[in-house]
TrEMBL record:
This is Acyl-CoA dehydrogenase. Residues 474-554 form the Acyl-CoA oxidase/dehydrogenase middle domain. Residues 197-336, 617-727 form the Acyl-CoA dehydrogenase/oxidase C-terminal domain. It comes from Novosphingobium aquae. Keywords: FAD, Flavoprotein. Gene3D superfamilies: Acyl-CoA dehydrogenase/oxidase, N-terminal domain, Butyryl-CoA Dehydrogenase, subunit A, domain 2, Butyryl-CoA Dehydrogenase, subunit A, domain 3. Belongs to the acyl-CoA dehydrogenase family. Residues 6-105, 358-469 form the Acyl-CoA dehydrogenase/oxidase N-terminal domain. InterPro entries: Acyl-CoA_Oxase/DH_mid-dom, Acyl-CoA_Oxase/DH_mid-dom_sf, AcylCo_DH-like_C, AcylCo_DH/oxidase_C, AcylCoA_DH/ox_N, AcylCoA_DH/ox_N_sf, AcylCoA_DH/oxidase_NM_dom_sf. Its cofactor is FAD.
Amino acid sequence: MNFDLTDEQEMVRDTFARFLDEHSSTIRVRAAHPSGFDPALWQGLGELGAFGMRVPEEFGGLGMGLLDAAVLMDEAGRTLVSGPLAETLVATRLLSQLGGDAQADVLSRAIGGETVVTVALHDIAAMPRQWVPGGLVAEAVIARRGNDIVLVSVPEAARKAEENLASTPIAEIDLGALDAAVLGSGSDALAVFAAGIEEWKLLIAAGLAGIGREALKLASAYANERMAFGQLIGTFQGISHPLADRLCEVDGAKFLVWKAIRDIYDGSDEAAAGISLALHWASKYCVDAASQALHTFGGYGLTTEYDVHLFVLRAKAWPLVFGDTDLLLDEAARRLYAGETAALPDAGDVPIDFDLGDEARQVCEEIAKLFEEKVTPEMRAKFHYSWEGYVPEVHKMLADNKLLFPGLPEELSGRNITPYAKIAAMGELEKQGYNTPGANVAAMVSMIIHKYGSDELKRDVLPKIINGEVLTSLGYSEPSCGSDVFAAQCKATPDGNGWRIDGTKMWTSGANLADYVLMLCRTNTEVPKHKGLTMFIVPLKAEGVTVQAVHTFMNERTNITFYDGVRIPDSWRLGEVDGGTKTMSAALELEHGGGFSKVMKGMIHAAEELCVEIATPAGKLIDQPHARRRLAKAVAHLWISEMMTYRAQWASVEKKPSGGFGPMAKMWSSEKFLQDSRDLLDLTAPLSLSKRTGAAALVNQCFRHAHGTTIYGGTSEVHRSMVAERYLGLPRTRG
């Protein structure tokens, strides 16, 4: 797996970033109004080789890949580049593919920035008069004309300037009335041109992501200096949380572009739909990000003195020259569910990679084989995403095969496998339906005992956990504390050579199944709350422990546990007295960043199955555009969730700065899981109201399950604050 650009790509990015910072500053962008074109900037880009980036070397270009062009467009978006860069990148490539010797001079001048060549986005045989991106300054336009691809010469008299939303160099031109040279005819030429339009979609989406991210950066900087009511406005969750949400959406746009490019390279069936989803998503959510950024400035954002409005206008205008981009969701739906195909551009070299590797596949195959051979239908019938899905025989089977705790180091897991194989193994267990909280918590407790436990605990308790003989529960939260575990009041007081535990713990899920609970107790009331805590292992079968069920509407049992004079020896303490905060940090070693993409995928597949099954007066539900559209929207959420999780895992494994990637993946995926569970329940109603075994039961369950995912493990609000602070650099919103 790799989310890094190559050194060469980073050099290219840095080169263009420095040039654009100087030559496409907002001062220069404003100076280019009203035409929206900066000739000096254009000449400079030509000298740097920007326009020849996608042109093969034999035609005078650089022969670079689609990802390289997307990186350039990200920087172009960040700096609001004044000119039709995406269109020219596509046009020069098309000229090299179709123009031949007859158009060599036009190609050379276009690569050098001496002239502008752009593309018409719609067939001029059907729409001879249309809005052309860059049409105001282009001397030539490449267009489809029925069965031909033509190069239309556009005299200055045909290019009429008009005021427009974002002062971009668009123009409405009657291309059908102008002289045109045929570049190619027939299916091959049409496919080359169609692939160019698909490339344009990806490049515009990449540029929009750059616009959105820079707008959020401006908002963050302002929120870090603007005071209101005696505080920085960035401390207000009403400011920081919407910005965190918009950041997730902007990252989602970039990730859809990256995924589509990688899918093109891999020959994936998802590539064509991914292109449509990328531009649909970017055109909707990057302008939302810019608008939210403007809102952060309050009334100042509305004035032309502040730059943020420029980002709002460009984010909105860039894609709309294509027309209503909401229709791209319908296009994606047809490509996903109606068999529609598309000609795709060549991706070139693609260093980004979301594959976990051969060892990962081998481990997954081993797990799948175990489940196929040794897990009975009766065992599978007990599987559930909650603690109640614990099946002792399966738990022990995994332990015996050294697959119960793949995320732990070899001395605990019993196996030496690579980090990515560990990630894949945990994913395969989830795919099999047996990634239960019981195993995950047991892994965490094993790590803490291994690092901080006494010889007695390592001798008498740790082997039982590692061998799959017992479960452990977590005793962090309390009825009055919620997510603030450091406010724990459950007391541990010295008692001879040991301790006496008194108090109550809430949300001790699995306590009805476990033998032990890892407890955080108050041992000192005379110091700050986070310094007066100590961690213990407490036997749940001990005298004075009461476990009381708390049932949820998600079909998930949790517990409230009471401790009345429970006595344990000091050897069952973990770490130093009053050092519980440090002891808890051991659990972070298992943190790779996670989300709910696998259950989201299962839910979508179940909804697809129901759509095939459900008959309506208009025919099968799956054949109806509105149904396919809603499924496609859920697929976009799924793909972004997967990419966010991959990035968080990659950053953890490769020791990269994470910037809140883990909290982002968890928050985003849980919120979209909840959103889509509602929508897909609606889509497949009334059948989805049933708990009928199969797809209906799963869609029904997912609606209930999704509510909990936005709460446990830290609420979405907590994670939004983390994203705002770690990724956007906003001040803390919590005491």
